[in-house]
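Deviation from plan, reported transparently: flavin mononucleotide complex.
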Amino acid sequence: MSTPLHFNAFVMNTTSHIQHGQWRRPDAQQTAFNDVRTWIELAQLLEAAKFDAMFFADVSGLYGDADADYDVYLREGLQIPSNDPTVLLSALAVHTEHLGLATTSNVVQAHPFTFARQMSTLDHVSGGRIAWNVVTGMQENGARNFGLPRLTDHAERYRWAEEYVDVTYKLWEGSWDEDALLQDRERGVHADPGGVHKIHHRGERYAVEGPHLPSPSPQRTPLLFQAGSSASGRAFAARHAEAVFIASPSPALAAQQIAQTRALAQQAGREPGDLKFFQGLSFVVGATEEEARAKAAEHDRWVSVDGYLAHSAVLDRTGRAYPPQTPLSQVDTNGARGFAEWLSRHITDREPVVADLAAQRATSQRVVGTPEQIADQLEVWRAAGVDGVNVVNWVIPGSFAEFADQVLPELRRRGLAQAEYREGPLRQKLFGSPRLNERHPAARYRGAFGPRARRTAGPGAERTAGPTTEPTAGVGTGVSG
Ligand SMILES: Cc1cc2nc3c(=O)[nH]c(=O)nc-3n(C[C@H](O)[C@H](O)[C@H](O)COP(=O)(O)O)c2cc1C
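Because the crystal trials were delayed, the predicted structure below was used instead.
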């Protein structure tokens, strides 16, 4: 009996997230994205079906050429309008008990001091069920929304992310000692002054004095997801991620990506089991294979090619979109790189082109069949090293209700899906302990700022914990130009 796969519901607080065109179907309720009940009822459906988490994607701007017209995004409802998932998660937290709640936030869209506080607050509100999908942001328009002239260079974005997480780790793991929050009414001491520390972070982009304002939450550091499959993305995941979200074109390529990232994690002093890999997959289930194929054809009837092409637009170094028939081998983009890299390894019988990215998004990673056939395919992904699936929907709530009612029972029968939740915070459910393990880079900040640290490091030590260069002025640095 194999260990259960983990299942997350991959959603976004918008009408058209990934499967563009499906919002026009009569059974599509994702158009009611502004109504909090849409998401509360979905969260309760997912919890009843013992999903591990509800995973919210998010962006900070429009896709595509930021100087071109953006009509297609509005016509398609393609991630605009969209609401802020960090706000929505608090409502979902009070209407659920075990369901993990993951939000995506890139390094440009919030200052790390503010973001760290939001995550700690949500972790308190949810009793330790918050996860963060760490992304660098890949949109020109998204960068311009925060005062940047253009999207920061790809490698530089990951360097930015390194400092960003460093600040958050210091706040979450190092600023408050375990037992600092006393609330001793007798002695009139609310917190132990010796147990709450300033972090005095001074880095290339950020200067953050601290202390962290929230007291430690159940997980302190939210469970860390990461989505980015380029070489820089894999290296970042190997150092920081607990769960990696992949969109591999095939189990064979997923196995390669997983093996590479786990090997990099070992080089970074971690263990292969410290990372779990979640493959993005959509499902079309039928009582018979014919019925499932007919339903898949029905989905295809609603597919918006314009939507997929617009979502998969690839920009050149000047921010201009490559024409769809441009060979991927000629693409040199500062945006998302991993998708094209892996697709070029997948399509070997001809020269893959930009439009293939849209086709890949629309067709591959789609599992069609009876519950038994779907379970068979999931066994194949599992054998490739995948630990979980981010379930991509066609319609809300229908796709998740169908998966829960028809597929999960078969998976449970095979021991491939959990029938009950484990107790405790999200990280405890997935890894057996609520806190990051000692091998994770964030752990090095435990006790790093306290008197004990000062005592061991001698006078003035507190001022030098972490990089000491003057922060550069600009986005979210808190140090205005
Ligand atoms: C399955 C998956 C989900 C993603 N979700 C988001 C998201 O919600 N917001 C976002 O800005 N980027 C998202 N990304 C994009 C990644 O953050 C990243 O920009 C992209 O994978 C390119 O990274 P790379 O150049 O390192 O490959 C996602 C990527 C994958 C693979």
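Residues 154 and 334 are 5 Å apart (CA to CA). We consider this an acceptable substitute for the interim report.
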